[in-house]
Amino acid sequence: MPRLDGTGPMGYGAGTGRGFGPCCSGLGRGLGRGYGFRRTWTKQDEKTALEEEVKILKEELKVTEEGLRSLKGQK
Predict the structure, then answer these.
(1) Per-residue pLDDT tens over the stretch 9-25
(2) How high is the pLDDT of residue 73?
């Protein structure tokens, strides 16, 4: 979510994105539901959330690159 303010992509509200952010993994702010409940994050919480996001993004990149390779092979 932009600015982590609970508004979701383009300001349309929570749950309107692709589900790749930290809220998707259950580590997100506001319990991942946009109810406005916030908890204090420790540095370890932030580190864990960022590591999970890196893992998700790497997997998405892998899938995207595989799709691109398969399209190149179909010329």
Answers:
(1) 666 666 655 665 655 55
(2) 82
Q: Which residue has the higher pLDDT, 72 or 20?
A: 72
| Helices assigned H by DSSP within 1-75 | 43-72
Token pair 């790497």 is found at 58
Cβ-contact 34, 13 below 8 angstroms = yes
Selection from 14, 11, 12, 48 nearest residue 30 by Cα: 14
**Integer-rounded Cα radius of gyration of the chain:** 16
Q: What are the φ/ψ torsions at residue 18 (nearest 5 degrees)? A: -90, -5
CB 36 within 8 A of CB 6: yes
Q: Which amino acid is at 33?
A: R
